[in-house]
Automatic annotation (TrEMBL):
<dbReference type="Pfam" id="PF20431">
    <property type="entry name" value="E_motif"/>
</dbReference>
<protein>
    <submittedName>
        <fullName>Pentatricopeptide repeat-containing protein</fullName>
    </submittedName>
</protein>
<dbReference type="InterPro" id="IPR046960">
    <property type="entry name" value="PPR_At4g14850-like_plant"/>
</dbReference>
<keyword id="KW-0677">Repeat</keyword>
<dbReference type="Pfam" id="PF01535">
    <property type="entry name" value="PPR"/>
</dbReference>
<dbReference type="Pfam" id="PF13041">
    <property type="entry name" value="PPR_2"/>
</dbReference>
<feature type="repeat" description="PPR">
    <location>
        <begin position="243"/>
        <end position="278"/>
    </location>
</feature>
<feature type="repeat" description="PPR">
    <location>
        <begin position="107"/>
        <end position="141"/>
    </location>
</feature>
<feature type="repeat" description="PPR">
    <location>
        <begin position="181"/>
        <end position="215"/>
    </location>
</feature>
<dbReference type="InterPro" id="IPR002885">
    <property type="entry name" value="PPR_rpt"/>
</dbReference>
<dbReference type="InterPro" id="IPR046848">
    <property type="entry name" value="E_motif"/>
</dbReference>
<dbReference type="GO" id="GO:0009451">
    <property type="term" value="P:RNA modification"/>
</dbReference>
<dbReference type="GO" id="GO:0003723">
    <property type="term" value="F:RNA binding"/>
</dbReference>
<dbReference type="InterPro" id="IPR011990">
    <property type="entry name" value="TPR-like_helical_dom_sf"/>
</dbReference>
Length: 439
């Protein structure tokens, strides 16, 4: 706070005028001027702060805080909380925390606002620290507090106990006899799903009188991730008010398995028939499904699947005015390559309007390895190494295995020497999507 700068208000901004009893005249969305009132009261300050909180330019309201500091006015709890909210809305988390620490009375709503502010800025440890302080203060958390703690448990953060936080919170909800609502139920389901506790999530889900589409989507994703397709389909059927996100969950879930990939395309067609507008995620999943099918369903013929995937890819810009992203280009390369059309995949890469990224080259390398094309594998691997030599250890393994399968043992020996220097094991996994050890 020593170096922090708070906007300074001029004394002229509070010149006398008997006609006004508000800091901010109705519909004003800019800083107070000379026409603003001169002797603000707690009521007028509170009203003015609320107007700025609700406005499109909340930062202008900080001049009120500057005035309070300058005049030595002692704000009550209501005004202090509104100042806290104002700073949070402006994104000034340090200012908000200073206001919080100086509150004449720390209320539950103040804790909730501050905890929520920390989470919005990704400060999970700080939010949990404040939760502990709340509990130690003897204040009883409410449903909103618990929903935010559950949100913290789903953040990708190396904070101890996050994996078990969902069950701990669930126990506290029951202990404090907190009346659960849709927000709390949804947060609890999502927390259990994110940590692989699908059975616990289903128990909570079944307790809900009205299943919202957000919870349904979480349940579908959870079941799909553990391969329980029938259960996911059951949830999908029972979801009365479907939206694009729930359709995407089904399309993505189906696309991961050769056994169900064709259903991914079928759901995509059904979704269009029902006038749902696909988004970026939809296209990545459905093209990926075509790719999975092209690699394994020989009996269905590659050409039809490749053509289907091409049409879907081309429809992005033509019909939906969406510019394909690198993930879509990588999916198309994977589709063409898995189907054995490596020449087409190579031509597709060379014809890209943007410079291919590592995912695109990794997809081509993966397909080249699959079909034993040493020349194409070498081209893809070299381009991949130029972009990300150390970030794709699986690429070295894929190229090495491709060379070995073709009997190019001198090349294998040279490459494995490089791998030893880089500390890459020949058992490193390779897949062009997914993990840190991917191609």
């Amino acid at each position: 706070m020593k170096n922090a700068r708070i906007p300074i208000i001029r004394s002229s901004c509070f010149s006398s005028s008997r006609k006004h009893n508000l800091l901010v005249p109705p519909n004003q969305t800019f800083p107070p001027t000379q026409d603003s009132f001169s002797h603000p009261t707690a009521t007028s300050l509170s009203s003015a702060l609320q107007q700025y909180i609700n406005s499109d330019n909340p930062s202008y309201g900080q001049k009120i805080h500057s005035h309070i500091l300058k005049t030595g006015f002692r704000p009550n709890t209501n005004i202090s909380i509104k100042l806290l909210i104002l700073h949070l809305k402006c994104g000034y988390i340090k200012y908000a925390r200073k206001v919080f620490d100086e509150l004449p009375q720390t209320t539950l709503s103040a804790y909730n606002y501050m905890i929520g502010g920390y989470l919005k800025h990704g400060l999970v440890e700080e939010s949990l620290s404040l939760v502990r302080r709340l509990v130690y203060s003897g204040e009883k958390p409410d449903g909103f507090t618990f929903s935010m703690i559950l949100k913290a448990s789903t953040c990708a953060c190396k904070v101890p106990l996050l994996c078990s936080l969902g069950r701990l919170v669930h126990a506290q909800i029951l202990k404090f006899e907190v009346e659960p609502d849709d927000v709390l139920y949804t947060a609890l389901v999502d927390s259990y799903i994110k940590h692989g506790k699908v059975g616990y999530a289903r128990t909570v889900f079944d307790m809900m009188l009205e299943k919202n589409v957000i919870c349904s989507t979480s349940m579908i994703s959870g079941y799909m991730n553990q391969g329980s397709v029938k259960d996911a389909e059951d949830i999908f059927r029972k979801t009365m008010e479907k939206d694009l996100v729930v359709y995407n969950a089904m399309i993505e879930g189906y696309s991961k398995s050769i056994e169900y990939a064709r259903r991914s395309v079928e759901v995509y067609v059904d979704m269009q028939r029902l006038n749902f507008w696909p988004n970026i995620s939809t296209f990545a999943s459905v093209i990926g499904a075509c790719s999975v099918l092209a690699a394994f369903e020989i009996a269905c013929g590659h050409a039809g699947l490749v053509d289907k995937g091409k049409k879907i890819f081309e429809s992005m810009e033509r019909d939906y005015l969406m510019k394909p992203k690198m993930e879509h280009y990588a999916c198309m390369v994977d589709l063409l390559g898995r189907a054995g059309s490596l020449k087409q995949a190579w031509d597709f890469v060379r014809g890209m309007h943007e410079k291919p990224n590592s995912d695109v080259w990794a997809a081509l390398l993966s397909s080249s390895r699959l079909h034993g094309d040493v020349e194409m594998a070498s081209i893809a691997a070299n381009e991949l190494f130029k972009l990300n030599a150390d970030g794709r250890p699986g690429a070295y393994v894929a190229l090495s295995n491709t060379l070995a399968a073709a009997g190019k043992w001198d090349n294998v020996s040279e490459l494995r020497d490089v791998m030893k220097v880089k500390g890459i094991s020949k058992n490193t996994g390779y897949s062009w999507v997914g993990t840190d050890i991917a191609l």
